[in-house]
Amino acid sequence: MIVFSSSTAGSNRGKLEEKVAKMAKANGKKVRIINFVDKMMECAKPLNMNITPSTIPNLDPQVIKVLKENAMHRISDMINAEKDADFIIDGHTAFWWKNGPIGLMDVRDFSDLRPDLFVTIISTPAQLKDTILKDKEWLDKEIDIYEISVWSELEIYTMDLISRTLGKSNYLVGIDEDPVTIYNLMYNPWMLKIYTSFSMEHRDTSYKRLDRFISRLREMAIVFDPRSVDLSYYGEYYKDSRIKEIAFNQTVRRDYRLIDQSDIVVIHLTSLVYSSGVDSERMHAHSTGKRVLLYFPFEKYSPFTPYFVNKMFNNEEELINEISKLASRTNGRKVKKS
C-alpha cells in the first residue's frame, strides 16, 4: 500500500500521518512515512546546494525537475527494499509563489511509483499562516493569506488531475480529522463512507451528543466530519472582505467535496435552529444522487423538511440501526453495533 499525502506548507500533516502509523502498528501493520521534500534536499547536498523547503520554489524549473526525479528514485528504492511495509509519501504537488503557480509534480512522476491512494490534507489558510509564522524556515518570507488560499485550491486541483489520470481516488481529509479515517481509507476502503451534516451553532450545547453519535458511526463506517477544519482560526481576518469572501467560498466547496466523496449523508439535528449550511448540503447531496438520512426529533415540520431526504428518523437508535444495515451491505458482513 502506497499513499501520496499532499498539502500546502504549514499544515502540520506529519502529526496526523504519525497517528495513522501508530494506529497501524497497534493493528499489526507497518507504515513508513517518507517526506518527499526531505529527499529532494538530500539529493541537493552532493551538488553543494543548500536548499530548504521555503527556497525550493525559487529554484530553476530544470533544477527542481532533476531533484524531484532523483528523490523519486530514492523513494522507489526504499519501498522496494522493504516489501513488508506500507508507505505514506508526504509531499506537495504544486506551489503558489510570487503571484503565480509552480508545478512540482505531474502524472509522469508517478510512472514507477504508482500510489494506491491519494490524500489531500486540508486546513484553513489562516491556520496555515499561523503555523508557517512559527517555522524558522519561513521567517524571512512575506506570507499573504490570500495567496495561501489560492495555493490550497491549487494543491487540491493538481492532486485531482494526477489521481484521476491514474484512475485512483483523491480524498480530502481535514487536518483535525480522526486518524481512523485515513487508516480505514488505506486498509478498509470498502467501508461505507458517511458525511455528517449538522448545525455549527450548537458547538456549546450539543457537540457532546454529536460526538457520541459520530463515534458510533466510526465503528461501522468511514466518517468525514466538517469540524476537522477549524474556521475559528480566521478570527480577525474576516474583517477583510476579500479574505472573508474566499474563505466562505472555500468552505462551501470543501463541504460539497466531502459529500461527493461519501456514499451517504447523515444529518443530525438536535435543535430547531435554521442552518443554511445544512439546508444547502442536504440539497446538494440529494441532487447528486446521494442517499440522505435525517435525524429530526420534533413532531412539527415543514413540507420542505422531508422533501430532500430519503428517510427521516425521530429516534436516534432507529437511525443507527438503518446505517448499520447499509454498512453491513456495503461491508459484506454484519456490523457489530455498540
Total separate domains: 2
Number of strands: 12
Run of helices and strands = EHEHHEEEEHHEHEHEHEHEEH
CATH topology of the largest domain: Rossmann fold
CATH class of the largest domain, named Alpha Beta
Give the number of helices. 10
What's the architecture of the largest domain, going by CATH? 3-Layer(aba) Sandwich
Rg over C-alpha atoms, rounded to the nearest angstrom: 21 Å
Work out the strand percent.
15-25%
Low-pLDDT parts are 334-338
The CATH homologous superfamily of the largest domain is named: P-loop containing nucleotide triphosphate hydrolases
Spatially, the strands of the biggest sheet line up as 2-3-1-6-7
Instruction: Name the shape in a single word.
Output: globular
What structural class is derived from the secondary structure elements?
alpha/beta
State the separation between the terminal residues, measured CA to CA: 30 Å
What's this, in brief?
By secondary structure, the chain is of the alpha/beta class.
